[in-house]
Amino acid sequence: MTVDSSAARKPRRSAAGKAGTTGSNTGTTGDPTGTTGTKRAARGSRAAARKGTEPELVQLLTPEGKRVKNAEYDAYVAGITPDELRGLYRDMVLTRRFDAEATALQRQGELGLWASLLGQEAAQIGSGRATREDDYVFPTYREHGVAWCRGVDPTNLLGMFRGVNNGGWDPNGNNFHLYTIVIGSQTLHATGYAMGITKDGADSAVIAYFGDGASSQGDVAESFTFSAVYNAPVVFFCQNNQWAISEPTEKQSRVPLYQRAQGFGFPGVRVDGNDVLACLAVTKWALERARAGEGPTLVEAFTYRMGAHTTSDDPSRYRGDEERAAWEAKDPILRLRRYLEASNHADEGFFAELEEESEALGRRVREAVRAMPDPDRFAIFENVYADGHALVDEERAQFAAYQASFADAEGGH
Ligand SMILES: Cc1ncc(C[n+]2csc(CCOP(=O)(O)OP(=O)(O)O)c2C)c(N)n1
Ligand SMILES: [Mg+2]
């Protein structure tokens, strides 16, 4: 990693400029040049890694379900009612139930593939519930919890994974873009959309989801540059689930991911991605910054992918069970349940009713998937060009001949 030699010529900064290490985890605080902070951050994170500790993160609920004070972010959840807290819990439970059903459906041959969000419910529900109706969301392929918050019917998410449609929902119906498999590319779409919002003079904001692995993509770096320079109203929400298929986060960056923002000139924050309240508060803060014309923010939600990358993956090939066990103790749903129980915000009746609702959702999803009609085999050639195209016509004819060859074989026996 190269370090900026010009930093040596700069005067020593005061203690107030200690950015990016401990104390504040908002990467740009007090260090407009970013260079010294970046070196310190790199030293700090290497030292942290040696000691097996990680830099501070924003947390409002401990894994034991205790509410802890936070001077900067408490205000963003100060008015939350018991009903809304139960709502966040319900969102997480139903999303997990839906996800489990989709995984089972893949195993039963009803879906071609599934990318589970298990373990990431708080990051997705907290950030998703922070968005406003007129905001626009650009997801990857794992944001089932965010889709839920935006009002996309869960069964619509499954059509693409069953291979019966090319996406499954109208992005403009809920301001929730189609799932994007090309890693990181949606951050560019989000940045362009956000620049458009500024040109329209609107006060809505954009949130782009991506992973720790995606943070290494050139598209993401370009998005950071453009959004910073154009002061675009976009929140970059990175779910650091510790793995990019079989590659651990250490292979993506020499500094904690949220500190990347510093070099681009906008703030970065690391939040406990298993704490739904903290994710809600930090994302609200970042979206408000965007609306107020203060430009982009990078939020790193520090979480864990409890399951396989997708149903095609076998994580036992590259990681041990101890790691998962350590994260199970930080389960996002369990900690909110503990808090709800300890503060008498939910009783047995609430949990029992939710259990029934979960089972009903599982049944509804299963039945809907099985009932999805297969598309016409030739539909894949439609909607590529408005007026037809010689190459597509040729491919359609080849495909027709291929299909017909089965009919011949059947007839010949
Ligand atoms: C441009 C591009 N390169 C490679 C891939 C293959 N690929 C699919 S998922 C993935 C890992 C992504 O990891 P991360 O960004 O951490 O997201 P996560 O799956 O952990 O949510 C890769 C490399 C791809 N889809 N697109
Ligand atoms: Mg990842």
From TrEMBL:
Keywords: Oxidoreductase, Pyruvate, Thiamine pyrophosphate
Residue stretches in coiled coil: none
Cofactors (names): thiamine diphosphate
UniProt feature, compositional bias: Low complexity: 16-47
InterPro entries hit by this protein: Alpha-ketoacid_DH_E1_comp, DH_E1, PdhA/BkdA, THDP-binding
Span of domain Dehydrogenase E1 component: 90-370
Residues covered by region (Disordered): 1-55
Signal peptide: none
NCBIfam families, sorted: PDH_E1_alph_x (TIGR03181)
PANTHER family (alphabetical): 2-OXOISOVALERATE DEHYDROGENASE SUBUNIT ALPHA, MITOCHONDRIAL (PTHR43380:SF1)
Name under which the protein is recorded: Pyruvate dehydrogenase (Acetyl-transferring) E1 component subunit alpha
Annotated source species: Streptomyces pyxinicus
Name of the gene this protein is made from: pdhA
